[in-house]
């Protein structure tokens, strides 16, 4: 995903990330933009307030996106719709845990670590679990 000349932390959208559904692709693009914006806040050593705000934006976006994605998977009659929803629920629980744990610690380092964990978990989900329904859609 990282091409020459792209800063290491930046993620660029490529067609390889497409799940063959315009609505979901649009939301995944928005998610990637939010992740890049969090990365920038960390890289440019912005105030902690900025980092927290950008993390919260990713969390809010993920909650909305997950609900939408779950509804679509059901609508498509995807056999793993329920399993996918469970995975989403687990991610949201993990995010809550991370935000709660680091929320008590006001050091910048703790928040950066939390931000990186959050980002990693969600990107991993897009690259592994969401790609599974892309393959399913191609057989529809
Ligand atoms: Fe998903
Ligand atoms: Fe997704």
Mean pLDDT reading? 89
Work out the helix count: 4
Q: How helix-rich are the residues, as a percent range?
A: over 70%
**Span between termini:** 27 Å
How much of the sequence is in beta strands? under 5%
What is the CATH H-level superfamily? Hemerythrin-like
Sum up the structure in keywords.
74% helix, 140 residues, binds fe (ii) ion, Four Helix Bundle (Hemerythrin (Met), subunit A)
Question: Explain this structure to me?
Answer:
This protein is an all-alpha fold and 140 residues long. The chain has one domain: Hemerythrin-like (Four Helix Bundle (Hemerythrin (Met), subunit A), Up-down Bundle), CATH 1.20.120.50. Helix content is 74%, strand content 0%. It has four helices and no strands. α1 runs antiparallel to α4, α2 runs parallel beside α4 and α3 packs antiparallel against α4. The mean pLDDT is 89. The site of one fe (ii) ion has 5 residues, from α2 and α4.
Short description:
The chain is mostly helical and 140 residues long. Helices cover 74% and strands 0% of the residues.
Which helices and strands, and how do they pair?
Blueprint: H1 22-43, H2 48-75, H3 81-103, H4 108-137
The protein binds fe (ii) ion (2 copies).
One fe (ii) ion binds next to helix 3 and helix 4.
